[in-house]
Amino acid sequence: MINHEPSRLAALMQLDLLDTPASESFDRITRMASQIFDLPIAAVSLTDTDRQWFKSRVGVEHREVPRVGAPCAQVAETCDILVIEDFETDDVYRDSVLGRAGIRFYAGAPLVTRDGFGLGAMCVLGTSPRTVKGSELAALRDLAAMVMSQIELQHAFGRIDPISALPNRTQFLEDLADLARDEGTGRRRIVSLLDLMAVDQLNHTQRVMGPAAIDAIIRVAARNLRILIGPQRKAYHVGASQFACLAPDGVDETDYLDMVRAKTEQFRKLGGEDVLGTTVIGVAPFVLGEVAPSDVLRIAQGAAQDARATGLPFHSHSATSDKAFRRSFALLRDFEVALAASSDLRLVYQPRIDLASGQCLGAEALLRWTHPTLGPIGPSEFIPLIERMSLATPTTAWVIETAVAQIASWREAGLDLTVSVNISSANLHDSGFADSVKAVLRRHGVPPTVIELEVTETAIMNDAELALTQLNQLAEAGIRLAIDDFGTGYSSLSYLQRLPIHVVKIDRSFIARIDTDPRQLSLITMMVSMAKHLGHRVVAEGVETPAVLDRLRSTGCDEVQGYLFSHPLPPQDFVAWTKVGRRDEAPDRRLA
């Protein structure tokens, strides 16, 4: 048998077993050993440099005993079974720590790796002398083999990352659960999560340098992290480029943050000097037993994301931020359900007024959502969520279908108006979008000229050439197009000239102060003049006071829209509103 002590210790350290929390998978075997031998004491004992540390124990108060004079050390060194039928008659162990503590019987079977290294022993102990049957020794060997199988299972199958050689996310979550069970609930602990690079940085590095380069970075980072946190703390590989570790027990959060701040530069270079990414750290204080392990990891990852979003090297978990994020996630999930059922979604319509005649020429269709338990959810909260996710495309499809059906209904009733609908960047990246809009119009028997699609400058510039292709197809079909929130994006005049748009809508942020700020009025006048010289009709959004309306008349603006005339209205109220007359001449009659 191989019995070289440095190699044996190295094999033990590589398994990352020492000083880990108790585990039910090991405790189950230890209880079985105690029951088979009908003895009060059983343990899975690992032989460290100067101690016997118990990964699992029954009837043992202490987590470790000195290695000197410990029978389990002999078992580990010889990789052979050891039976001491009576300590008082054994010259070697009579005066050992166990002998002086009243132990009279010991039997231990070795825990041996596939490479022949003895890690420790599966042992049973008693306070009375006894003999051992051959069947009992066979059972003890089987139990030791079961322990080794569990060790190998945890280490090799789904518990150790093959690149970093660190325990993975599964092991991290299990260790947190074991820690709560072993130490009890109510104790405060801190987890820190290190994210080497953002997802786009990771993808860019892999695309340019290949997956082998990422693997090399991970290996370097894992090695440096182990050195940085020291041998007494355990590091985990919990994500593609994410590592986690527990702060030392009992450390104050403020002190720990000061330590993280002091080592920021070392953390930044964790993956090496050539890493094309920015390392950030998320710090997550939590209470054992009160926060699920999966939630501990989630809030640590969230804190790291907050650090990246704010440009800071590290960020501590914020309950307020986490609550907002969880609300956003819940809303996104519930909106998907609402979209499928359509019962909680509706369109409202805000009138657009011709500034010269005062007549209502059309309306903008706006999506509204009434959550079944939370009530009305503001569009400023849920629209950005769905635009960032895959729900943007089906949401636009629902809005267009509903708006066109409403247009058809109004036309049958003799109300001939243009209705505008907002579309997103995702729609312009869908090569079949123009055809789908034309299909909806044909299905409802509505001419293309009565619908207007509004798109922001930012959505166009995300992929200007592809957007231009889609917009040209829509324009060629006779569908009106509008630039929404004009002035807030970053499109150039050259692109504005190339776009087949009919309408420019000036954002409300430019309109609000034109009655009190001459410079703002001059800017609006210039924007209106430029758009009209390019052949576009101009609509001013967010008109809320007669004074603003009066200033807009001097700019040459074509249409206006805002609360001065009406809030967005349900379809039946909108029809009633259109019958009232010139809203700009009777602001006292507007709907609130």
TrEMBL record:
Q: What is this protein called?
A: EAL domain-containing protein
Query: What GO molecular function terms would the record report?
Result: cyclic-guanylate-specific phosphodiesterase activity
Q: Which Pfam families match?
A: EAL, GAF, GGDEF
The cross-references to SUPFAM superfamilies, in alphabetical order and at most eight, read: EAL domain-like, GAF domain-like, Nucleotide cyclase
Alphabetized SMART domains for the sequence: EAL, GAF, GGDEF
Coiled-coil positions are none
Stretches assigned to the EAL domain = 328-582
**What InterPro entries does the record point to?**
Cyclic-di-GMP_PDE-like, EAL_dom, EAL_sf, GAF, GAF-like_dom_sf, GGDEF_dom, Nucleotide_cyclase, Rev_trsase/Diguanyl_cyclase
Leader peptide range in chain numbering? none
| Entry superkingdom | Bacteria
What is the species listed in this Swiss-Prot or TrEMBL entry? Lichenibacterium ramalinae
